[in-house]
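From the shared-data thread, chain only:
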Amino acid sequence: MEGYVAPRQSMARVLAMRPDEGERLIMVGIGIAIGALGFAMFGERGETVNTGSVVLGYLVTILTGLFQYYVLARVIGFVARAAGGAGDQEMDRTLVAWWAIVTAPLPVVMMISLQNIESPLAGLFLLGSSILTMILLGAYIAQTHGFQSTARVCGAMIGILMLFSFVLTSLVPMPG
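Structure, as tokens:
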């Protein structure tokens, strides 16, 4: 709960514990399991579902979670240190692992919202979950790297994502 209501304090507490790689991977694994459980509970159902595709979906979920853990930690560390951040690579992996476990229920909320997209609250839940995910990541980065303002970190993240999307859309041709 502290991860949501006092994110910087929770990140400071987790960093003070100095989890090793195994403990961080357990956090990531729990996050992946919660996401997979959400998919199992609220994903496609019926006779048309192919068991092989479901197993492949779970395998892709696990590999994506591990890829996110290692690559996102590297990217966050590179950008944060370039901006004057004080954290090291181990702390970057800790923050991504903590973020993965804290935000694990949010994709489930998003999936439920997408299944009920005709509901007027579905869009609100989708938007709220996305914003909460970004704010929590910004707070965890700010705490890990010694930045004073979570809002500035979130603004920098949005700016970097916008720049990346502009570059990507200019390189990838539009269909049609």
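The mean pLDDT is 88.
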